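pasting for ref
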Amino acid sequence: MTADDSNGRLDDDDYPAYTMGRAAEMLGTTQGFLRAIGEARLITPLRSAGGHRRYSRYQLRIAARARELVDQGTSIEAACRIVILEDQLAEAQRINAEYRRAAESAHSASAG
């Protein structure tokens, strides 16, 4: 691996850079919480060669949102479902905005 490869991975939101212990520490939660949201299929950590769970920054953001909901009294299962739906909605809105921009661009080109 070159220095460029490692720098690129550090910028990659999907690179599994964090161990379970470090992820729990960063989120201010327990490893059991991370296992529970994994069992609920909110996030699926990658496994190191030794079988240890590794988390990406994207997964940590998802886990942090679930933790917020649980801290507010939502069950883990419901929190995971809410976060999944929020993520799906954000993706649908992103795609819709792309279609809208493409349609406006096509309309501008044909009107000009």
